[in-house]
Design a protein that fits this description.
alpha+beta, Methylamine Dehydrogenase, Chain H, 2 domains, five-stranded antiparallel β-sheet, 615 residues
């Protein structure tokens, strides 16, 4: 395996483990190392319901509390800080088959038909977000088993289940037996056509449960939907599920490790959903060796203790470009999904600063991927000023010829306290034309928006944060996921409920850019299934490009004035000045020919827009 040269760090990579497959080497970044320092978020007052707040470029519109029956009667989970506390927690777990440290924590979200579905370790809830007011709770389903990540397709809701307490009938566990026919670990399928009477219609058992899952449409058959299932738990025994065996592949070639599950759902018969493939996507491309990627451990002094690549945590598919990006414990990978039943790895990347490759998000063009590192598993304080700026961060990679290349790291720039669990987590693209913006959850680090348009120089442009749940002790909480949907940011708060935020203009983001983003609408969002964003030709889109150019002095003042005049005429309406628009397109094309980089791209986009208007 090839290990990159130092990327914005002073890590001395001394060597690599033997026997792993080849991975892409990262190019060094061009900027300086990021500095994490105190700001207005660093000293916010604590509280579960009344913590201090900080906002820049974002405004909180609504804060909805936990749904009835889904709030933890205590504050929540506090990781043990001593051997005695650990033993006490284990004692509480013994004899209680329903024990779960995050038993009522909110998790991931999906949106469809004006309803937001919010997963929870105890089941899921649905909120009506179709109106202008606060989200309204319209459905609650108690179905324990964690972690409860959800996705939606039409009248079907899919939910991930991984804990041993999960039961086929959504009931509570009554036995701690190692083997029971009533245990369920896998992907549940619900019929939600009637929100007053949701029904579980299928339950696909898997060997390692389901931590997360991804919906993958068939490229030509609308009746077929695939699910890429990512199981991260221990392998269950063959006595409980016959297809399951454990162990390393050199000793057990049939091991359930080192694969994902491909589940096929025929939409006219979803009750018959079943696993149709368990592809070995980590195999060495030359030798076929099943354990072909990172073997786990450290690659040198001062590097992360990185997980073995025998699973994926998240797989994000982008069907329109035929690719998927997998965040797969010890590696980031790229998959060809042109045949979705048989995904094939085209590239992989390793980085000694990444402890656990957690999630992946493409930019709209499909030539960049943001990988996150969940250093510490999401339950530790990992955003302190003393923590490395490249650990628990985002890694921005580019894609060229279906090959990954790491370019830079970006971490929440605000120093958080020792009682705030904080690390990079789930996010989504914000549809601002001409830029690559990603809104993202950082647990108790809050919500942050990163601009990674320049993959070598990502930067934060907006944020929202609360103080810790408790000032004296770490209780797990904060934003699990933060997603953009039809003009608003929705944030799943682990212990507090659901937040709704809106963008507000600041020095990094103009009113026109926000308006152009808010004009993009969709019916459904499943965060691990990305779709291409397109923008209508509007004066807001034109103004967004112009604002981006003027922000960096990328257009001459005279031309900027002419473009602004064209936009003003456009806003006034009336007869289209086709001749003037065509002339302006010519001037912009001429300027684009003399420019370079992003300025060239934005000038050309403006020229194309006015050219279409001039036809």
């Amino acid at each position: 395996m090839t290990v990159r040269s130092s990327l914005l760090t002073t890590v001395a990579v001394l060597g690599v483990l033997m026997g792993a497959g080849t991975a892409a080497a990262q190019a060094p970044g061009t900027g300086g190392a990021q500095v994490i320092q105190a700001d207005g978020r660093s000293t916010l007052s604590a509280g579960l319901a009344d913590a201090g707040q900080f906002a820049s470029g974002l405004a909180l519109e609504h804060a909805i509390g936990m749904a009835p029956g889904f709030a933890d009667p205590d504050i929540g989970f506090s990781p043990p800080t001593s051997r005695e506390e650990g033993e006490a927690m284990m004692a509480r777990a013994r004899g209680n088959p329903n024990f779960s440290v995050l038993g009522r924590a909110n998790t991931d979200m999906a949106v469809s038909d004006g309803k937001l579905f919010l997963g929870n370790f105890n089941g899921f809830n649905a909120y009506d977000i179709s109106g202008d007011g606060a989200p309204q709770l319209v459905m609650s389903v108690v179905c324990p088993g964690g972690q409860g990540d959800v996705s939606v397709h039409g009248d079907l809701l899919f939910m991930s289940v991984e804990e041993n307490r999960g039961r086929l009938n959504c009931g509570t566990a009554t036995t701690e037996d190692d083997v029971t026919s009533q245990r369920f670990r896998g992907v549940r399928i619900f019929d939600i056509s009637d929100l007053n009477a949701p029904r579980q219609i299928a339950a696909v058992q898997t060997c390692r449960g389901s931590h997360t899952h991804t919906l993958v449409p068939h490229p030509t058959d609308d009746n077929v939907l695939y699910i890429y299932n990512s199981g991260t738990s221990d392998v269950r025994g063959a006595a409980e599920l016959a297809i399951c065996t454990d162990g390393q592949p050199d000793q057990n070639p049939e091991t359930a490790l080192f694969s994902i599950d491909v589940i096929k759902v025929e939409l006219d018969r979803p009750q018959d959903a079943a696993i149709v493939n368990r592809p070995r996507i980590f195999a060495d491309s030359q030798t076929g060796r099943v354990a072909g990627l990172w073997r786990g451990g450290r690659s040198g002094i001062a590097t992360q203790d990185t997980a073995q690549t025998n699973q994926c945590h998240d797989i994000t598919v982008y069907p329109e470009i035929g690719l998927a990006a997998g965040a797969c414990s010890g590696n980031g990978i790229l998959l060809d999904i042109s045949d979705p039943e048989n995904p094939r790895r085209t590239s992989d990347i390793f980085d000694p600063d990444m402890a656990y490759w957690h999630s992946a998000t493409f930019n709209n063009a499909g030539d960049k991927v943001v990988f996150t590192d969940e250093w510490g598993g999401g339950i530790g304080a990992r955003c302190r000023a003393t923590d490395p700026a490249t650990w628990g961060a985002n890694m921005v990679a580019t894609i060229e010829n279906r090959t990954l290349a790491g370019k830079s790291f970006h971490k929440l720039p605000s120093a958080q306290g020792s009682t705030e669990n904080c690390v990079a987590h789930n996010g989504m693209i914000i549809p601002v034309p001409g830029r690559d913006l990603m809104v993202q959850a950082w647990y108790q680090g809050g919500v942050s928006i990163m601009d990674f348009t320049d993959p070598a120089k990502p930067v934060e442009i907006a944020s929202f944060d609360r103080g810790p749940i408790d000032a004296g002790r770490l209780y797990v909480g904060g934003s699990w996921s933060a997603y953009w949907f039809n003009g608003r940011v929705y944030s799943s708060e682990i212990a507090r409920g659901l937040d709704v935020l809106r963008l507000v203009p600041n020095e990094h983001l103009s009113a026109a850019e926000i308006a152009a983003a808010e004009a993009v609408t969709s019916e459904t969002i499943n965060p691990q299934t990305q779709t291409r964003i397109t923008w209508a030709d509007t004066p807001d889109v034109a103004a967004a490009y112009l604002d981006q150019l003027t922000r960096v002095a990328g257009v001459e003042a005279e031309l900027a004035g002419q473009v602004q005049a064209g936009i003003d005429q456009w806003r006034r309406g009336g007869r289209v000045d086709r001749r003037g628009s065509a002339a302006l397109a010519g001037l912009l094309n001429e300027a684009s020919g003399k420019a370079a980089g992003l300025n060239k791209t934005r000038l050309k986009s403006l020229a194309d827009l006015f050219e279409r208007r001039g036809r």
